[in-house]
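note to self — DONT lose this again. spent like an hour looking for the file last time. sequence + predicted structure for the chain T wanted, 672 res
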Amino acid sequence: MRSPANSALFSSGLWERALESYACAAHLTVKLFDADAHTVSGPIHPTPFFKLFQETTGYDPGLFAECARRCLAQTDGRPAVMVSEFCGLSVVGTSLALDGKIVGAAVGGYAFVDFSQLSQVQRLAQNSGISFERLWQIAREQKPVPRERLVLNGELLQVLGDALLRENYRTRQYEQTVLALQETIRENDLVAIRDPLLVLDANARIRFANQAFYKMFHVSEPDTLDAVLYDLGAGQWNIAELRRMLSEMLPTKGTVEDFELRHDFPGIGSRILKLNAREIVRPAATEPLILLTIEDDTDRTLAEAARRDREVRYRTLFDLSPVAVYSCDAAGVIVDFNSRAAELWGREPKPGDTDQRFCGSYKMHRLDGSFMPHEQCPMAEVLAGAIPEARNMGVQIERPDGSWITVVVNIRALRNDRGEITGAINCFVDVTERERIQAELRTLNADLQHFSYAASHDLQEPLRMVMSYTQLLARQYNGRLDPQADKFIGYAVEGAQRMEALLHDLREYWSVNEQRVENPVGVDCNRALARAIENLELSVRESGTTVTHDDFMPLVMAEELPVTLLFQNLVSNAIKYRRPDEAPRIHISALRSGGSWKIAVADNGIGIEADHFETIFGPFKRLHGREYPGTGLGLAICRKIVQRYQGRIWVESTCGQGSIFCFTLPAQGGES
């Protein structure tokens, strides 16, 4: 009669974990066979040797199967079985018995027992189709295993295998198995069980503890063995939850899995432990033993709690964000999206939907209105690595209801530790209304500019007629009428002249505003300044003004006429606001700053109060009424010119001590 079915013999999860620990410690690959020599598990922990055979030609010397057959054929005793090739490659196996019947076999390999002759390795390389250099390198890394050690590994495998069989049916005395396994581990200097482990009797007296337990909880073997668990380490294990688990839960269920215990242990601090306990019933014994394994789950539990907290925070931000957000995996399939994204798309993509990859929108178009296939959208380009990221890129979305919106997308790739793209996240904003308003403002601004320029131009002719006749009245009737009439005629002439100056400045202001920068070139500031002073020759001579400048004046990237007008307005402004008791002195200097030149126009005039430093650059802003002539557009024109070339202008002044007007213009050649 055959032993119980293999599904009952080898289905326990203990097999995989125990054989994995054994294989890691012995540096072998393990296969598990049933009574018919069929593989039921494995390869477990494939070694470099095993992987090498699989990765090349699939070479299999058949040692595992041959060893299993020999193990299953044993009738007298069950010694470890070692099978070797003539080239030195070996495996070791053991039969697995239950109730005196052999029900399977466990085989571990491959290992070189002896490869002192290079010809053996060369022969194996030739037989397997593997390069000698690669095989020799891996052989030297694994090192040869003495025949005695390999046999001892087989005996350990037998002890472990029998223990696992008995464990499934609770028929073997666990204490003997543990002691045998402990002795074997000590003799071979192996550490197969990494988590702390205890074997307790019914009174919670410690019958066995492994090295991991001693190391983690800072206790010694003499103080531990035969001690009651609750008295160990000055009572650090005297925990009510642990007592209840061992005295109430375990006897009722026979096994307790993943019991969480939180406790502050002296010496190691607050820990979160995961306990697994099982009663081991021994037929010849009067009382059962308790196998207690302890896993330090502190770091994982805290990390998981932190991860859940981050996930809750992320999900809250994700859902509540007024910005539309969605993410894709590396293939472009949408993984997640918030309600704002669905609102802008006008639809909700189905989970895992591959028909609308890269974007949840119905259709997409470029800003010029041309159709954009999803495979060409910014998300697809980021995932493909064609662009590192997308910043403020415009896209038009056509929704299922036929409506269109314009969005600005910002996309960044998500990468793993190896730098590989695993997905991407997109934050996009609806700018449809903003674009509409900006377009209207641009149209309105253009209309206003054209109207103002046209009005200032069309008013010149009637103004010229008014000036001509008022000047004619002044010449012909000066002194012939009463003094009040002469005064009235003078007011009319003065008003017409002011109106003419205002229209002239308005035309200049709007011409600077409307002109586009076509071809900025290197403008010589010496030449522009000379032309400005030449245009102001009469004012300079009448006011006794002295104008000086640095020996070196730079080349700036601009246009000569606007730069000339800039100097002319600033010098004229300095002459106009001079002190009555001192002739004007004006000095122009230049200083390089990165890719720009800072140019300063300093005077010794009346100065400006700090409250007006910004005000004076606005159109029609005059601080002194009619006390000084002008229209209030000179400095506004200066600001327009400087802004035309992405520069800035400002003033530094102390009232009564003069002013320094500073502006920046791009240097020829860019960055210094």
